[in-house]
Amino acid sequence: MAAMFLTMALTFAVAGGLFASALSRNAARDMDTRLRSIALDLLAGLSFEPDGTAVLNRIPERSEFDDRFSGWYWQIKVVDEIIARSRSLLLDELPASRSNEPLVTPEGIALRTAIVDREFTNPSRLVTVQVSAPQSDVDEGVTNELKLLGAGLTILLLALIAVTGWLLLRGLSPLRAIQKDLGDMISGDSDRLQATGYRELDGMVGLINSLVEQGRQKAATHRDAASKLAHALKTPLALIAARTDLSGATPDPDIQSSVAIMRSHIEHNLNRTRLAGAHSGLSVRISVEPVVRDLMFAFAHSYHDRQIAQTIEISAGTTFLGDKDDLVELLGNLLDNAHRFASTRVSVDAENDSNGLLVTIRDDGPGLNDPRLRPSKDNLEKSTNQQGLGIAIAQEIVSAYDGTLTFAPNDAAGGLAVTVRLPGFIPE
Amino acid sequence: MRILVVEDDKRLGPEIVAVLRRAGYAVDLSSSGEEAAFLGETEPYDAIVLDLGLPDRDGLTVLTQWRAKSVVTPVLVLTARDRFADLVAGFRSGADDYLKKPFQIDELVVRLAALIRRSQRSPAGVTNFGSLAFDTTTGAISLDGLPLALTSLEARILRYLVQKQGSLVSRIELADHIYERDTDRGLNSLEVVISRIRRKIGNNKIVAVRGEGYRLERNPEK
């Protein structure tokens, strides 16, 4: 916008220059015409007596012709003899010049001059009338006109900039609204673009909404298909597990192990599908406290016999930017392990800091010797260890969000402190 | 103890029923949500094993309906839905425990026993009543420290009476908790089974109260 306004200002400056040049030429031409008119008047008032005496019936009334060095001069020459001159010339003579360019007097005054010749008869004689005016009079007039023109052009330019700016701001307002809506969608405060009220743009808004919705639906379809496949496999697996357990006094360990590996494969790949689906849509801002309270409620029932004491400390308004299922699965796996290994208590602290979400889950279990910390993510697919699987799934979710998962001794009570840090900034 | 198993899979359902019967429970099997909803409301089950993926009605809907109608029977949810969101939804709907498929069959039996024990506020481990002892985890019954050889029906009756700790149990109540849905509930046959139990544990341990029912004696007169 600044470049456009600069171009407008330059255009006005060039136009002003052209106007000034034309004005200057016109003013010089006007002055020359006036001087010629005065010369013709002088000639019209000149006559000769029969004895050859020249009679000047009228002289120009302009007072400047009486002031010495005023630059306003006239003289009448017959052949080479001056027969009459203005008072301002006193005894001087105007230098002869038929050029369009101003001539300069010995006093340094630039003069515009007009020269008119006429042949008088009986007897025949050539009369030359020369009239001059100071070039400064022309220049002053041009300068005054230019000041007026400059002021007018400046006012016009400012008005034009103001009107153009207003029109641009008004014209761009729906695009700014779309930009804000997109920001809201990315930050999770909205799930679609709002109509702008401009028919030309609302078509585009509708197409963008459709595109986003298609992405969401595709992600949901993929998740749904993966879930259905997993569920379809789990019931037959349950049957195999049940038959294996009942087939004899000693269950076949190979079949039991195979069932556990198949279950690991299903859960691991189902989780990956869910994560892949989560990143095909836009993030949503999720309130963390209800998610934690729901999970703690569920684990209080799941581990009812253990009578684990639970503590929740979550700062008001703590949120997570992402997919709710991912947050539930992440915290679910970590809290499940914490309850599984805790002796008497599990606590959850959560807050938002400048980097995003910070969650710490503490228990008073075996701490860093905890078997839940094995196996590593690398051998996840071969794992039959549900505890290790839970941590590996949590690690995958955290990695997908460019977050970190750290384990440390829980100083207060022994046990383990698991810290999850998930970025929660709104991308530029 | 009488259990309702709600599972639509034609192979897994009977498998679970067989396992629970071997563990000493009277078990009814239902493969439809609608039928299960009705049975849960009308039959006095001691616990329900509920699969969520039913063909005609979602298991959580059935569970919510039971709780809305004040059915307090403990429910163990058995499901292939393995997300923690499903776990939360299950407990929020009124489930008492949750087991993901595939599962170890022993774990199902143990968790079901714990669920029933919890609902009856019995302590974990062995419940004693006089010279009788009932292991609430394994379901085994012993007399003077020696295991009793009981048929399935005899074991159900004795367990129920031990858990009632000497309270009077009507014949109808006893029949409701030991017979499966399609079993002939002739009260005479109940009398026959109780007679067989008496022969195994001593004649005077189970007292018949005329017109009212049965009661277990802690220290019967010899």
Jot down its keywords.
heterodimer, A: 428 residues, alpha+beta, Heat Shock Protein 90, 3 domains, 5-stranded antiparallel beta sheet, 5-stranded mixed beta sheet, 7 helices, B: 222 residues, alpha/beta, Rossmann fold, 2 domains, 4-stranded antiparallel beta sheet, 8 helices, 41% helix, 21% strand, elongated
Describe this entry's structure for a reader.
The complex is a heterodimer of chains A (428) and B (222). Chain A is an alpha+beta fold. Chain A contains seven helices and 14 strands. A five-stranded antiparallel beta sheet of chain A has the order 4-3-7-6-5. In chain A, strands 9-11-12-14-13 form a five-stranded mixed beta sheet. In chain A, a hairpin with a 2-residue loop joins β11 and β12. In chain A, α4 runs parallel beside α7 (386-400). The model of chain A is unreliable at 375-385 (pLDDT under 50). The mean pLDDT of chain B is 87. In chain B, a hairpin with a 5-residue loop joins β7 (132-135) and β8. Chain B has eight helices and twelve strands. Chain B is elongated, with a radius of gyration of 18 Å. Chain B starts with a strand and ends in a 6-residue tail after the last strand. Helices cover 41% and strands 21% of the residues of chain B. With 222 residues, chain B is of the alpha/beta class. The chains are: A alpha+beta (428), B alpha/beta (222). The interface between A and B is medium-sized, with 35 and 33 residues.
